[in-house]
Amino acid sequence: MTTLQVRLHAISYEAPTINTYELRTLDGAALPSFSAGAHIDVHLPNGMTRSYSLCNAPHETHRYLLGVNRDPASRGGSQCVHEDLQVGTTLEISAPRNHFPLVEDAPHTVLVAGGIGITPMLSMLQRLEALGRSWELHYCSRTRAVTGFIAALAQYGARVQWHHDAEADGVRLDLAALLQSHDTSTHFYCCGPSGMLSGFEAAAAQCAGAPERFHVEYFAAKEASAAEGGFTVQLARSGRLIPVRQGKTILDALVDAGVEVSYSCSQGVCGTCETRVLEGVPDHRDMVLTKGEQQTNRSMMICCSGSKSACLVLDL
Ligand code: FES
Predict the structure, then answer these.
(1) Containing structural domain, residue 249
(2) Residues 53, 112: one domain?
């Protein structure tokens, strides 16, 4: 995978646990362009790779802006970002990828964000503004004090609806009512904690119109990784056979065997480990591919998906 060297140009405070991180090229050249909803992988000083949504306007080519919440349940990624990164640090990143693309010609767009799930929505709403499209944002967080990007969103007035459910006068967002209150040409986007995403998907299932109008981005896996093992992976380029034993994912087996592969979240949500399938039938467990893409069995996320066939031939 192609990587790019960037410098951490600025860190800004957004909320007690949220900072933004502005990345620029080392020589001031333009960065690869991106579309609203895209993310990049950041190779962190602690050896981890983590995916973060780009939250600046997609027409900007001089910087990538990331919003990172210091998660108390961090597996080391957000903690390293908050504690170890300093202005001037050089970082290796991937080019932007987008598994959460915006349908730019919808007559109306409803963005629903929970917590740090606001980051892709910031990029989306700036794109919709640039296109002169109609949109509204529903932004859920526990209290105003822990909410990021308040100043940046203030300019949009009533198009931003705040839902602080732990405030005395806070009102919890009623997802079912929200989804039912728009006509069937409206597109909805949701990014936030898994409970919110399941609620959104359940509410969407009750709505009329095309299910493709409802778009979600997961931060964490919804189901367990396939670690049943009992099959073999064949690496097409070398012919090498790697057994995947019980208790191991394909990614585990490949890493143990010294095969170099790219991965980040290890949970089937970022798309970094997507690998072409040349033969065999994967047992898809990821949140990246659409159901239709999974059914073609052309590619799979090797960090979390297993195999329904005795052998999988991968383009590795
Ligand atoms: S490493 Fe993120 S989807 Fe596999």
Answers:
(1) 231-314
(2) no
Q: For residues 76 and 113, state if they share a domain.
A: no
Summarize pLDDT for 164-211 with one digit per residue, the tens.
Answer: 999 988 888 999 999 999 999 999 999 999 899 999 999 999 999 999
Domain identity same for 144 and 44: no
Summarised one tens digit per residue, pLDDT across range 86-145 is 999 999 999 999 999 999 999 999 999 999 999 999 999 999 999 999 999 999 999 999
CA distance 100 to 191: 10
- Whether 263 lines ligand 1, by a CB cut-off of 6 Å, is yes
Question: How many of the other CB atoms lie within 10 Å of CB of 283?
Answer: 16
* pTM of the complete model: 0.86
Residue 99 lies in a domain: no
CB of 77 closer than 6 A to ligand 1?
A: no
CATH number for the domain including 255? 3.10.20.30
The full DSSP string for 245-293 is -TT--HHHHHHHTT-----SSSSSSS-TTEEEEEES-EE---SSS-HHH
Ligand 1: which residue has its CA nearest to atom 3?
268
Count of the separate structural domains present in the chain: 3
